[in-house]
Amino acid sequence: MVVNTHELGKTRFFKPQMISTKYFEPRVYAHLREADYLPLRTKADFIIADTFTGSFIAVEMKRSARQVGARQITSYLRMPVKVRKQPLENRLERLEEQFNKLVKSTWGHLFSERDIKEMRKLSKGMLEDSKKMRELAQQLQEADD
Amino acid sequence: MSKESANSYSQIDYIQAQIEVLKRQRGRFERLLIILRASQQVLDLWTMQYIELLRMKRELGLKLIPLPQKERESLEEVLGSKALEEYDNLIDKSIFQLLAEGRVLTIVEMEKALKNIDALIVELIACVNRIQQGEKEAIHTIRDLILKKVVPICFGLALIGVDIPSQSLPTVIGGGYIVYRASIA
Q1: Smallest Cβ distance to A99: which of B53, B83, B154?
Q2: Which of these, A44, A99, A132, B91, could form a disulfide with A58 (CB 3.0-4.6 Å)?
Q3: Is the alpha carbon torsion for B82, B84, B88, B91 positive or negative?
Q4: This model's pTM is above 0.95
């Protein structure tokens, strides 16, 4: 999310992406032109917010004759806009997907082929013997009745 | 041989067979923990994310560890449909306890369960000896042990057995926790 601090109505939402430090989009220049006409220069020109986590960074633009630069401002700002928080269900779905991907992707690195093979053999044995344990418990029950 | 004696003998047979199976299961559980122990740091990373997941699920009132259909069917075949009915209560209760403590079960704790299972096996063998010496009350003691400890341990191990092939770490931890809690009951 990018909030235009000069015109809040022009807040835009973007998918996460790498921002090139070399070339700016035309609207950045448009913003800077508008900012030139303001009586007072604002502290932050853009606020880049992560609506998932609610975190944000404030960016101040600097312009000289031949270049445009940006720097992150570390000072605290009060944001007049409401950070859009995803519903809990969406966050859960995303976290679950991330977690399952993490487990699946590391499983192969975590355990050798031999370990995985052995674990499968162990699991088969556990299941077979669990069935046996249940049957014996039932037989013990019947023998007592 | 009287009917009563024959009955006692058959019960002893079942109990001794149960002890032998439990010994095998204990050996398998130990082997699994040895494999998992080597990866403790990565497991710690997984478990922190997993705790966060479980907290969100609890907030939403969802089942903490729902069993996928395939695993549910395998477990039902092994343990019977009645055990599955008790599944939700047992696993949710176990995991709630862990969440309340802000942690997930560690490999070290699961290794403690091994020692407890060893003690259980010794206790079962001692009970069998008492039955063989004519002590009838020992039958009730041993049935109690089987119901309260052996059956839940069996359940926990079955859960682990069902989930390893599908690489479901959460239910492996859940199964491990059931084994641990049953062994200290």
Answers
A1: B53
A2: A44
A3: positive
A4: no
Which residue, chain included where needed, has tokens 């779905």? A93
Give the angle B35-B38-B43 at the CA atoms, nearest 5°: 95
Helical (H) or strand (E) element with B58: helix B40-59
Interval B130-156: pLDDT, tens: 988 988 888 888 888 888 888 888 888
Nearest to B11 among A106, A111, A140 (CB): A140
Write the single-letter amino acid at A29.
Y
Contact criterion met (CB < 8 Å) for B35 and A106: no
> Strand order in A68-73's β-sheet?
A2-4, A46-50, A55-63, A68-73
Provide the ipTM.
0.79
Alpha carbon of B99: minimum distance to chain A alpha carbons (Å): 17
> How many other C-beta atoms are found inside a 10 Å radius of the C-beta of residue A33?
10
Contact between chains at B32 and A104 (C-beta distance less than 8 A): no
Q: How many other C-beta atoms can be found within 10 angstroms of the C-beta atom of residue A90?
A: 11
Reported as a single tens digit per residue, the pLDDT across A65-115 is 666 677 777 655 554 445 555 566 777 888 788 777 777 777 767 778 888
Beta-carbon neighbour count of residue B177 at 10 Å? 24
What tokens were used for B85? 């009915």
Gap between the Cα atoms of B159 and B121, Å rounded: 21
If one counts every other C-beta atom within 10 angstroms of the C-beta of residue B172, the result is: 24
CA distance A134 to A140: 10
Question: Could you write out the DSSP letters of every residue in A84-135?
Answer: -PPPHHHHHHHHHHHHHHHHHHHHHHHS-HHHHHHHHHHHHHHHHHHHHHHH
Determine, for residues B161 and A111 on separate chains, whether the beta-carbon distance falls below 8 Å: no
Residues in chain B closer than 8 A to A132 (CB atoms): 17, 21
As a whole number of angstroms, the distance between CA B20 and CA B13 comes to: 11
Query: Helices H, strands E: what count in chain B?
Result: 8, 0
